[in-house]
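Researcher: We're teaching a course module on how sequence relates to structure. For the next exercise, students receive a sequence and then see the predicted structure as tokens, so they can try to spot secondary structure elements on their own. Here is the exercise chain.
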Amino acid sequence: MKRFFCIVFVVILCIAYTISSHAEEIKFYHCIDQWDEGFKIFQKDHPDVTYARTREYYSNASVLAGKLITHELNSDILGLQLTEINVKEIIEKGYFLDLSDSNIISNAISQMVPAIAEAGMVDGKIYGLPYFVAFDYWSADADAWERAGLDVSQIPHSYPEFLDFVEAWCERIEEEPEADIRIDGEYEASLYDSSHYTLLFTGMLLDEYIMQKAFANEELSFNEEELTPLLERTKELGQRLYEAEPAIQVTDDGFGYSLFRRTTRPAWPTDSNLIVSMRMNEEQPQIIQTIVDVLTINSGTASPELCIELLERMAENPSRENKPFLYQNAEPVERKDYASSLETTKGHIQETEEKLKDPTLDDDEREELEESLSSYQNVLAHAEDDRYIVSPSQLADYQQNTSHLYVAVSGTLACGTDGFNNMTDLKKQFASGLLSTSEFLEQINRLARMIQLEE
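Model: And here is the predicted structure for the students to work with:
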């Protein structure tokens, strides 16, 4: 009998070992957080699946593709940001699965904002699921403008208008210096010198110029007739502003109020009227640079069905905070605790009012209760201000502007590339006076031609 039980025990152990040895594992490359709702649902459906995360990071498409070929990178699901990795280059080489046959993913893509949906597509086929979006833009700081006594209705909406504003600001502070307000108060003090503003403004101008070209699907070249007067004025006002604003110390870490700020955030601004467009003229659209992350599946994965199912759960359960900016017909997002907080505050008010009816209260007790009541009533009066993560007006404004989204993609001029470094060096030489305007334009046009040849 003992022998029988031993044999049964060994058989059970063998079965258990066989099952565990065949348990599937999904490896992630910089994606899928444990608190993602879609991932939680998938885990419940597949309790035996295990997970691993890749720590390595590859900064461009060629290196990433090479690691996929050699299997040095064997992640099953990859989360990629289009501004860092040229995803379509990897798709065209066949390293990501075609997800078009998934009805769930196809349906999700069809409901997305077109510019965002296209981020993971090539030739009408789906290779990536957009799951995160952020916006990168210059805006006026409302608090700084109020402190300076400026009217936000006068916010510039083109680069020439921006230079007009800078010129007017120079005239103002040359007569009455401002102690704690600058055009740009966010700088690294040790690098702040007379070329600071010329370099900053030149970058604003050329970033917008390149973005407008890409948005219009035009070949990149820098029009000398259009850019020469803008660059000449940029150099003049950059130097003038540096001289007019208060001197800073190397120990300074930022300075007071900035009239303009560059912002990157995973939400549309609550007031898009504060956005400052750097377009060349009013005929161009006021486009907003949009950063998109996509989920892709390694075509060499050993678990394609499981990986597709996980992406389907992610598609069905997008982030509450980001969903309104991914999908065309999304709804405003109310804070989860809004209703309960509202009821709690009303309860405190009712309870405090009842206590105040007590005729035996002494003066100190009554005063304390009245202060509490006033505090609760103030919270209730402003409850609507903090009701939404994404408000109805914010969402409506975004939906009116989706045709002006420019989904930024990695390219020859992307941060970290030789093209980016060469362009940065040329801008620095121009800002410091080592290159004249004509020499600068000649050099960046030569760089643009080299980029065209490489692509």
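Model: If you want an answer key for the exercise: The mean pLDDT is 89. The longest helix spans residues 224-244.
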